[in-house]
Design goal:
Strand content: 15-25%
Helix content: 40-55%
Distance between the termini: 118 Å
Number of strands: 5
Strand order of the largest sheet: 1-2-3-4-5
Number of helices: 2
Largest sheet: 5 strands, antiparallel
Oligomer: single chain
Order of helices and strands: HHEEEEE
Protein backbone atom coordinates (compact mmCIF):
# COMPACT_ATOMS: atom_id res chain seq x y z
CA UNK A 1 0.00 0.00 0.00
CA UNK A 2 1.16 3.43 -0.72
CA UNK A 3 0.75 6.34 1.43
CA UNK A 4 -1.39 9.14 -0.08
CA UNK A 5 1.21 11.63 0.98
CA UNK A 6 3.91 9.88 -1.12
CA UNK A 7 1.60 9.51 -4.12
CA UNK A 8 0.84 13.21 -4.10
CA UNK A 9 4.56 14.09 -3.88
CA UNK A 10 5.28 11.75 -6.81
CA UNK A 11 2.60 13.41 -8.96
CA UNK A 12 3.97 16.82 -8.07
CA UNK A 13 7.47 15.77 -9.09
CA UNK A 14 6.20 14.38 -12.44
CA UNK A 15 4.35 17.61 -13.18
CA UNK A 16 7.47 19.62 -12.43
CA UNK A 17 9.55 17.40 -14.72
CA UNK A 18 7.04 17.80 -17.55
CA UNK A 19 7.15 21.62 -17.28
CA UNK A 20 10.95 21.67 -17.23
CA UNK A 21 11.30 19.23 -20.17
CA UNK A 22 8.93 21.04 -22.54
CA UNK A 23 11.30 23.88 -23.50
CA UNK A 24 14.11 21.38 -24.07
CA UNK A 25 12.02 19.36 -26.55
CA UNK A 26 11.43 22.44 -28.72
CA UNK A 27 15.16 23.22 -28.68
CA UNK A 28 15.93 19.75 -30.02
CA UNK A 29 13.55 20.30 -32.94
CA UNK A 30 15.21 23.63 -33.74
CA UNK A 31 18.60 21.95 -33.87
CA UNK A 32 17.27 19.11 -36.04
CA UNK A 33 15.68 21.38 -38.69
CA UNK A 34 18.94 22.78 -40.20
CA UNK A 35 20.48 19.30 -40.30
CA UNK A 36 17.41 17.96 -42.11
CA UNK A 37 17.50 20.85 -44.61
CA UNK A 38 21.20 20.22 -45.25
CA UNK A 39 20.58 16.52 -45.88
CA UNK A 40 17.71 17.25 -48.28
CA UNK A 41 19.74 19.81 -50.24
CA UNK A 42 22.69 17.41 -50.51
CA UNK A 43 20.37 14.68 -51.74
CA UNK A 44 18.91 17.02 -54.40
CA UNK A 45 22.41 18.08 -55.49
CA UNK A 46 23.46 14.46 -55.98
CA UNK A 47 20.29 13.72 -57.94
CA UNK A 48 20.93 16.75 -60.18
CA UNK A 49 24.49 15.58 -60.81
CA UNK A 50 23.20 12.14 -61.75
CA UNK A 51 20.73 13.62 -64.25
CA UNK A 52 23.42 15.86 -65.79
CA UNK A 53 25.80 12.91 -66.07
CA UNK A 54 23.09 10.85 -67.74
CA UNK A 55 22.39 13.63 -70.26
CA UNK A 56 26.09 13.96 -71.00
CA UNK A 57 26.41 10.22 -71.56
CA UNK A 58 23.41 10.20 -73.89
CA UNK A 59 24.81 13.15 -75.84
CA UNK A 60 28.21 11.46 -76.19
CA UNK A 61 26.54 8.23 -77.33
CA UNK A 62 24.48 10.08 -79.95
CA UNK A 63 27.59 11.86 -81.25
CA UNK A 64 29.45 8.54 -81.39
CA UNK A 65 26.61 6.94 -83.39
CA UNK A 66 26.65 9.83 -85.89
CA UNK A 67 30.44 9.54 -86.32
CA UNK A 68 30.31 5.74 -86.64
CA UNK A 69 27.61 5.99 -89.32
CA UNK A 70 29.69 8.56 -91.24
CA UNK A 71 32.75 6.30 -91.10
CA UNK A 72 30.65 3.36 -92.25
CA UNK A 73 29.42 5.36 -95.25
CA UNK A 74 33.02 6.28 -96.15
CA UNK A 75 34.10 2.63 -95.91
CA UNK A 76 31.14 1.57 -98.06
CA UNK A 77 32.07 4.12 -100.75
CA UNK A 78 35.67 2.88 -100.93
CA UNK A 79 34.60 -0.78 -100.86
CA UNK A 80 32.14 -0.06 -103.69
CA UNK A 81 34.77 1.67 -105.87
CA UNK A 82 37.44 -0.97 -105.23
CA UNK A 83 34.99 -3.86 -105.69
CA UNK A 84 33.84 -2.50 -109.07
CA UNK A 85 37.47 -2.05 -110.13
CA UNK A 86 38.37 -5.62 -109.16
CA UNK A 87 35.33 -6.94 -111.02
CA UNK A 88 36.34 -5.11 -114.22
CA UNK A 89 40.14 -5.09 -113.88
CA UNK A 90 40.62 -8.79 -113.37
CA UNK A 91 44.06 -9.76 -112.08
CA UNK A 92 45.87 -6.63 -113.30
CA UNK A 93 45.66 -4.41 -110.20
CA UNK A 94 48.48 -1.99 -110.97
CA UNK A 95 48.19 1.68 -110.04
CA UNK A 96 47.99 2.98 -113.61
CA UNK A 97 45.18 0.51 -114.41
CA UNK A 98 43.27 1.77 -111.36
CA UNK A 99 43.83 5.40 -112.45
CA UNK A 100 42.50 4.62 -115.94
CA UNK A 101 39.45 2.96 -114.36
CA UNK A 102 38.80 6.04 -112.19
CA UNK A 103 39.17 8.33 -115.22
CA UNK A 104 36.64 6.18 -117.09
CA UNK A 105 33.97 6.55 -114.37
CA UNK A 106 34.46 10.31 -113.97
CA UNK A 107 36.96 10.57 -111.12
CA UNK A 108 39.74 12.66 -112.67
CA UNK A 109 42.88 13.64 -110.77
CA UNK A 110 42.14 16.69 -108.57
CA UNK A 111 45.69 17.27 -107.29
CA UNK A 112 46.04 20.62 -109.10
CA UNK A 113 42.43 21.74 -108.75
CA UNK A 114 41.63 24.11 -105.89
CA UNK A 115 39.03 23.46 -104.57
CA UNK A 116 38.74 19.92 -105.89
CA UNK A 117 35.63 18.86 -107.77
CA UNK A 118 33.81 16.47 -105.44
CA UNK A 119 31.29 14.28 -107.25
CA UNK A 120 28.37 13.18 -105.07
CA UNK A 121 28.65 9.44 -104.56
CA UNK A 122 25.45 9.01 -102.50
CA UNK A 123 23.42 7.53 -105.38
CA UNK A 124 25.98 4.75 -105.88
CA UNK A 125 25.61 3.46 -102.32
CA UNK A 126 22.81 1.03 -101.56
CA UNK A 127 21.68 2.70 -98.34
CA UNK A 128 18.22 2.28 -96.86
CA UNK A 129 15.94 5.23 -97.62
CA UNK A 130 12.95 6.49 -95.67
CA UNK A 131 9.66 7.89 -97.03
CA UNK A 132 11.27 11.26 -97.76
CA UNK A 133 14.15 9.63 -99.66
CA UNK A 134 16.74 10.34 -96.96
CA UNK A 135 19.49 7.71 -96.72
CA UNK A 136 20.20 6.09 -93.35
CA UNK A 137 22.76 3.87 -91.63
CA UNK A 138 21.66 2.55 -88.22
CA UNK A 139 19.06 5.30 -87.79
CA UNK A 140 21.53 8.07 -88.67
CA UNK A 141 20.81 10.16 -91.77
CA UNK A 142 23.68 10.40 -94.24
CA UNK A 143 23.39 13.83 -95.85
CA UNK A 144 26.39 13.82 -98.16
CA UNK A 145 29.00 11.41 -99.52
CA UNK A 146 31.55 13.08 -101.82
CA UNK A 147 34.58 11.35 -103.31
CA UNK A 148 37.54 12.86 -105.15
CA UNK A 149 40.92 11.59 -106.27
CA UNK A 150 44.43 12.95 -105.75
CA UNK A 151 47.34 11.39 -107.63
CA UNK A 152 50.98 11.49 -106.56
CA UNK A 153 53.77 10.04 -108.68
CA UNK A 154 53.65 6.67 -106.86
CA UNK A 155 50.19 6.55 -105.27
CA UNK A 156 46.55 7.46 -105.69
CA UNK A 157 44.48 8.75 -102.80
CA UNK A 158 40.71 8.66 -102.68
CA UNK A 159 39.29 11.27 -100.34
CA UNK A 160 35.80 10.61 -99.00
CA UNK A 161 33.86 13.35 -97.21
CA UNK A 162 30.69 12.41 -95.34
CA UNK A 163 28.13 14.46 -93.41
CA UNK A 164 25.82 12.59 -91.05
CA UNK A 165 23.12 13.76 -88.65
CA UNK A 166 21.27 11.96 -85.92
CA UNK A 167 17.85 13.42 -85.16
CA UNK A 168 15.81 12.39 -82.14
CA UNK A 169 12.13 13.03 -81.54
CA UNK A 170 9.12 12.41 -83.73
CA UNK A 171 9.63 15.42 -85.97
CA UNK A 172 13.43 15.36 -85.70
CA UNK A 173 13.58 18.77 -84.07
CA UNK A 174 14.22 17.88 -80.44
CA UNK A 175 17.94 17.07 -80.65
CA UNK A 176 20.51 16.83 -83.44
CA UNK A 177 24.00 15.42 -83.36
CA UNK A 178 26.11 16.07 -86.46
CA UNK A 179 29.34 14.53 -87.63
CA UNK A 180 31.47 15.43 -90.63
CA UNK A 181 34.44 13.29 -91.49
CA UNK A 182 37.11 13.24 -94.15
CA UNK A 183 38.77 9.87 -94.75
CA UNK A 184 41.71 9.40 -97.10
CA UNK A 185 42.41 5.98 -98.60
CA UNK A 186 45.75 5.65 -100.37
CA UNK A 187 46.54 2.97 -102.91
CA UNK A 188 50.22 2.45 -103.63
CA UNK A 189 52.24 -0.35 -105.27
Amino acid sequence: MTCPQFASAKRLRLRTLDRDAAPQRGAALLALAPITMLMVSLMLAFMGTTVDTSRGSTSALDSFRARAAAQSAASLAIADLWGDFEAIGGDDEQIWVFRNYLDGIGFADQALTDPPIRPNYMANLALAADIDGDRHIDGVEIERVDVHRIDNWDSTSLVVEVDAVMRLGEDGSSRERRSSIRETFTIAP
